[in-house]
């Protein structure tokens, strides 16, 4: 069984002080896709290139203390790709892809961090630009290889994916345009075809599905959450998914780790 985790760290230095490495040693994922490193190469050197015996591969933002993604893995990839070819967003450190190709199989694991639009209109427009660019990239990738994309998508797709959907319909993360983008990506036609793996395994889960809670008020204590973290997979790999778990016993970040077990060998 291949155990794959996605976790927005909200800062790797912060998350490690809160015990994320000990949790990784205990849970023993084969791969963990992380987002929001909030660190650059010099910050990582000698400290975070490996965690819990897993070797890391990273895409850093140019801006210090901002964004950044990584994948820690037990398995040596055949290739590492940083960035998806965006003139605007590759500078923000939002995409790393590990390829595990062998004769007769082309397979990728991706860690991605979608922009948030919650800070205002300027970043919401940037988020829409990202979505417009990223959809054709995913369609090209789907035509060429099998993949699982893990990441903080910053979109709650359906009403069951957040606690207070009625009052959030005009807020970033649950806007009609964002949800429509997800619907298209998960559709059955040529513009879609990807699978929301958690929902394949847990089609009706509501309160237990959340992976992010605001730091305002008592959101975490009252489980006023959103499902923002996903595994998005090509159909063959989604069919291999067996079990999903969201770990909430220890809080490493404002996000919780989402782990899915796949009947898969790298």
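^ Assign residues to that structure.
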């Amino acid at each position: 069984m291949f155990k794959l985790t996605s976790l927005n760290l909200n800062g790797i230095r912060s998350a490690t002080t809160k015990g994320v490495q000990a949790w990784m040693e205990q849970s023993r994922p084969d791969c963990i896709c992380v987002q929001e490193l909030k660190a650059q190469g010099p910050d990582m050197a000698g400290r975070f290139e490996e965690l819990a015996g897993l070797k890391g591969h990273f895409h850093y933002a140019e801006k210090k203390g901002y964004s950044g993604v990584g994948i820690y893995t037990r398995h040596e990839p055949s290739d590492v790709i940083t960035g998806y070819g965006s003139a605007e967003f590759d500078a923000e450190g939002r995409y790393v892809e590990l390829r595990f190709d062998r004769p007769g199989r082309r397979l990728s694991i991706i860690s991605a961090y979608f922009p948030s639009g919650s800070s205002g209109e300027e970043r919401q427009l940037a988020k829409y630009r990202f979505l417009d660019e990223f959809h054709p990239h995913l369609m090209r990738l789907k035509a060429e290889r099998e993949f699982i994309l893990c990441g903080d998508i910053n979109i709650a797709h359906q009403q069951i994916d957040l606690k207070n959907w009625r009052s959030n319909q005009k807020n970033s993360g649950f806007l009609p345009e964002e949800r429509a983008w997800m619907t298209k990506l998960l559709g059955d036609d040529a513009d879609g075809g990807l699978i929301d793996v958690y929902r394949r395994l847990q089609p009706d889960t509501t309160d237990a599905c959340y992976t992010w809670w605001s730091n305002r008020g008592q959101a975490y204590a009252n489980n006023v959450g959103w499902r923002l973290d996903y595994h998005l997979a090509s159909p063959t790999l989604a069919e291999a998914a067996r079990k999903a778990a969201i770990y909430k016993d220890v809080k490493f970040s404002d996000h919780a780790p989402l782990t899915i077990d796949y009947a898969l060998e790298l």
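Helices lie at 12-17, 20-27, 41-44, 121-144, 176-185, 197-201, 235-239.
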